[in-house]
């Protein structure tokens, strides 16, 4: 006997409408509700026929996830968040990697359209806006992390100005009065926006100028040499990335400075392998990448349902406090 | 006028059969041939109708890629290699993340089957064999990185014994005579196999016992303290991971030992953010993860075509030589 959606709903203790939403990924539900429905469907062996349903409804219940970021440091958590929000139900996720190649991107988008995806999520490794995407036919698109330069497009990004402000406000709350900022290349919007916000948040406590360089531990170490020469009374360093902050901590220790007693240090990204391995572990800004992915998926479901949310939505990051500012 | 496959083939300078293979992902072609066909298809605007073709051929031209590894350090390069081999043509890749949860895995597999995938690739974060997978209906499955405990299954893995042997043989070639081995938990097969092979390769030059601990920089630093106390004449340390090796290099430097002049150090994984940021950069074993993914995709295409390759296929890793053994 074929298991019906009402059986699943009864076992999960929800209405059939909620069970359907959870399994179709067509509504925003609480994670534990969705989880309960999925487990009930699994326990009963509920199997919808994806292809058959796609043909009858005119929908494929499939979404394309297109990334330019082969390495995956930023896009992987975003993909997982989106996949979690979409695929918990019956929305399947087609993964495409463009490797930063516009020809490959066009090729993937054409194939996704040929497969009649219900929508597309586009992400990348940079926060600078990307050129508008040319879809072969109109299909809902949501940009995440890397926004679209088209103001009418739907984009979800992390609020970098807010992240840098959080870190520097924390340093000021600790009573620091000579706060330096060390970051990546000035031409990267992520470096420029964080720096501008850090300077504003530090106010009279800013120990300038902003030190632009590259996104590496090596640059963090070099910057400490410069800083200790030109600004020996620096008592805090806010960094544009965890890699830079890790290099800063190493160089401070090797120069005989204690972190955080003499100099407090903040990172940016909350990249666990860097932030936790640093000596000491880093206070840092968490970009909430999985949350970005979940939000993008939600916006895509809204757009598919005919309720797009054009413009740029910025999600607030979160400050994670560890020993590099808090002592032990 | 509809563009035909023969037009694409003519522009790419290949036979229609080769163009079809490249676009369908049904044969193993040279990367540049496939690339040429894709660019020709793109230039002409060639668009196959995925769903229509799926229904007429009884195939969906879709493959499921199921990972237990949310973090993505190991699975991401594997996914990219597989995606590259499959999706360059018309094989679409459905991404599923099980988060190490058997219920979620069953749920995803059931959905993939409902969508009539042509096959499934399963990967994970551990090299220990996993329990056989129970597919709801017979669909070709290839395991990669994490092999199946079922000897009749198709598994593609990195040859860990060979990797550890390569690293230690390199240290012996450099004339090192007191070679220690520092690695992760003994219960992990990756640690146990690498250790066994390192000991065998070092022969009389082995400075035992194997130091088992965890996969962290902190353990690498602690192990150096132990080693310098019990075996002060150690002149090489082969490590079970890049994170351990990075900690080893830091602790050696802080103990006044020069790397590689006094003690040569090798890592394992060639994880760029660790291996390159280490002071000095690490000589290490590259697992060739993208190649594993490409091979798994090829084996899956073979299995779909009715030519499965049961058993475990081990791919040889590659030694990457940098300053931690080679000086500068």
Automatic annotation (TrEMBL), chains A, B:
<keyword id="KW-0804">Transcription</keyword>
<dbReference type="GO" id="GO:0000976">
    <property type="term" value="F:transcription cis-regulatory region binding"/>
</dbReference>
<dbReference type="GO" id="GO:0003700">
    <property type="term" value="F:DNA-binding transcription factor activity"/>
</dbReference>
<dbReference type="Pfam" id="PF00356">
    <property type="entry name" value="LacI"/>
</dbReference>
<feature type="domain" description="HTH lacI-type">
    <location>
        <begin position="3"/>
        <end position="57"/>
    </location>
</feature>
<dbReference type="InterPro" id="IPR046335">
    <property type="entry name" value="LacI/GalR-like_sensor"/>
</dbReference>
<dbReference type="InterPro" id="IPR010982">
    <property type="entry name" value="Lambda_DNA-bd_dom_sf"/>
</dbReference>
<keyword id="KW-0238">DNA-binding</keyword>
<keyword id="KW-0805">Transcription regulation</keyword>
<dbReference type="Pfam" id="PF13377">
    <property type="entry name" value="Peripla_BP_3"/>
</dbReference>
<dbReference type="InterPro" id="IPR028082">
    <property type="entry name" value="Peripla_BP_I"/>
</dbReference>
<protein>
    <submittedName>
        <fullName>LacI family transcriptional regulator</fullName>
    </submittedName>
</protein>
<dbReference type="InterPro" id="IPR000843">
    <property type="entry name" value="HTH_LacI"/>
</dbReference>
């Amino acid at each position: 006997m074929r298991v019906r959606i009402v059986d699943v709903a009864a076992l999960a203790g929800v209405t059939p409408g909620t069970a359907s939403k959870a399994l179709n990924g067509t509504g925003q539900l609480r994670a534990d509700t969705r989880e309960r429905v999925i487990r009930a469907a699994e326990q009963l062996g509920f199997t919808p026929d994806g292809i058959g349903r796609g043909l009858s409804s005119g929908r494929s219940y499939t979404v394309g996830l297109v990334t330019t970021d082969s390495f995956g440091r930023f896009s992987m958590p975003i993909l997982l968040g989106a996949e979690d929000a979409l695929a918990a139900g019956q929305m399947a996720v087609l993964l495409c990697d463009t490797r930063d190649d516009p020809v490959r991107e066009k090729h993937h988008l054409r194939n996704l359209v040929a497969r009649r995806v219900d929508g597309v999520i586009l992400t990348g490794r940079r926060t600078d806006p990307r050129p508008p995407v040319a879809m072969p036919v109109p299909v809902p698109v949501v940009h995440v992390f890397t926004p679209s330069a088209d103001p009418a497009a739907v984009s979800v990004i992390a609020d970098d100005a807010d992240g840098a402000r959080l870190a520097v406000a924390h340093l000021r709350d600790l009573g620091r009065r000579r706060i330096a900022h060390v970051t990546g290349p000035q031409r990267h919007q992520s470096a420029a926006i964080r720096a501008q916000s850090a300077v504003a948040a530090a106010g009279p406590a800013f120990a300038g100028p902003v030190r632009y360089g590259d996104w590496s531990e090596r640059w963090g170490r070099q910057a400490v040499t410069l800083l200790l020469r030109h600004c020996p009374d620096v008592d805090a360093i806010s960094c544009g990335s965890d890699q830079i902050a890790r290099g800063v901590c190493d160089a401070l220790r090797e120069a005989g400075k204690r972190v955080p007693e003499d100099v407090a240090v903040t990172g940016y990204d909350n990249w666990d392998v860097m932030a936790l391995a640093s000596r000491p572990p880093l206070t840092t800004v968490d970009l909430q990448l999985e949350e970005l992915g979940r939000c993008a998926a939600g916006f895509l479901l809204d757009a598919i349902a005919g309720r797009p949310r054009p413009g740029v939505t910025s999600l607030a990051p979160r400050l994670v406090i560890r020993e590099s500012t808090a002592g032990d």
